[in-house]
Design goal:
Blueprint: H1 5-16, H2 21-44, H3 48-52, E1 58-62, H4 69-85, E2 89-93, H5 100-107, E3 115-119, H6 122-129, E4 141-156, H7 165-174, E5 180-183, H8 189-201, E6 206-209, H9 213-222, E7 227-231, H10 232-241, E8 245-249, E9 275-283, H11 288-302, H12 305-313, H13 326-347
Parallel strand pairs: 1-2, 1-3, 5-6
Antiparallel strand pairs: 3-9, 4-7, 4-8, 4-9
């Protein structure tokens, strides 16, 4: 049965009339729902970590055992960064394989900013030192800023014959087969310093690797080995107590905690410069907004009076803020890889 023409016209007229109050309310609700859905979609399109980072604790991996110099640096930084970020930065020690185990763990972590790495110069030297590295030093990390440069000191047993840097250089060249140089193990800072020293002199010494700085230092103090190069964090106390003979520092400027100790540069050995720098990293692909927040907290830590004072006790100081940037850090790592590659290859010392 068909509707009459008048009924049809009446229906059309109703359709052309303004909404009733009920229809208006329904329309508003639909509009609000649509707007909310669009906002939720846009919000969901952004990485969660970029919205309110951080919302939970951050893990700071140290690729060495607790109590060492890198662990000390990391814990000082972590404590200060926790205050700035409003969340705990928890240090986790993942030692083994010269620091490459912990670094590899961070390289494979989710790039959300909740896992970071604090590593020293070994981050750059591992690119050449290890034949089978599970990650690419230059492409598998997000650099977040340099932290500090720890100077190195060349020290010897108390009764070692040379009394100055020039005498030491001459003595090493003339007696290379009789000198025993100790280090804390392959890839350690003392190992790297020794390799660079021998490269600078174009000579070799008998090298004895130990399982850590402690045993090597004990044998040096006891006179079982002749020579060693290590961080001021490990040598300052021994030097001040007179248990070892100190020759010089390996940085361009003298160290404030050891002002009477000359630099190798001022003694005439140009190019022999090495410091155990530390930097902070995340996995590849951490969002720029998260990197910026972590870098800001790092810079605040480097200006923290407590951190500065404790670093001074360790014979070091925070880097200048213009070096604590992701861009400078990234370029610096690349330059260090290039610097150490020929030294390591010339020495012919590699690890699997």
């Amino acid at each position: 049965m068909t509707r009459s023409s008048s009924a049809v016209r009446e229906s059309l007229c109703r359709a052309d009339k303004p909404y009733s109050p009920g229809r208006r309310l329904l329309g508003r609700r639909l509009a609000l729902f649509a707007a909310g859905a669009l906002a939720a979609f846009a919000f969901a399109g952004k990485p969660a970590q970029a919205q309110e980072f951080p919302t939970r604790a951050i893990t700071m991996v140290v690729p060495f055992a607790a109590g060492g110099p890198t662990d000390t640096v990391a814990r000082l930084i972590a404590e200060s960064m926790s205050k700035s970020l409003g969340q705990q930065v928890v240090v986790e020690n993942v030692g083994g394989a010269g620091g490459t185990r912990g670094a590899g763990q961070v390289a494979k972590a989710t790039p959300d900013g909740y896992t970071v790495l604090v590593h020293h110069i070994g981050q750059a030297t591992s690119a050449t030192l290890y034949r089978k590295l599970a990650y690419n030093v230059l492409t598998d990390f997000t650099e977040m800023g340099l932290i500090t440069d720890v100077p190195m000191t060349m020290i010897a047993k108390k009764d070692f014959a040379p009394t100055s840097i020039p005498e030491l250089i001459a003595y090493v060249k003339e007696n290379k087969d009789k000198i025993v140089y100790g280090n804390a193990g392959v890839g350690s800072a003392s190992h790297l310093c020794g390799m660079l020293f021998m490269s600078a002199l174009d000579t070799q010494m008998t090298t004895v690797p130990y399982q850590g700085t402690g045993p090597a230092m004990n044998d040096l103090v006891g006179g079982q080995i002749d020579l060693m190069c290590d961080q001021t964090t490990n040598t300052t106390g021994q030097i001040k107590s007179g248990k070892v003979k100190a020759y010089g520092v390996t940085t361009p400027a003298r160290v404030k905690s050891l002002p009477d100790l000359p630099t190798f540069d001022e003694a005439g050995l140009k190019g022999f410069e090495v410091a155990v720098w530390h930097g902070m990293y995340g996995p590849k692909g951490v969002p720029p907004e998260v990197v910026a927040k972590l870098n800001g907290a790092l810079k605040a830590a480097l200006q923290d009076p407590k951190v500065i004072a404790r670093f001074a006790d360790l014979g070091t100081e925070p880097v200048a803020l213009d070096r604590a940037t992701p861009e400078v850090h990234k370029a610096f790592v690349a330059s260090e890889v290039a610097k150490w590659k020929p030294v390591i290859e010339k020495a012919g010392v590699f690890a699997d």
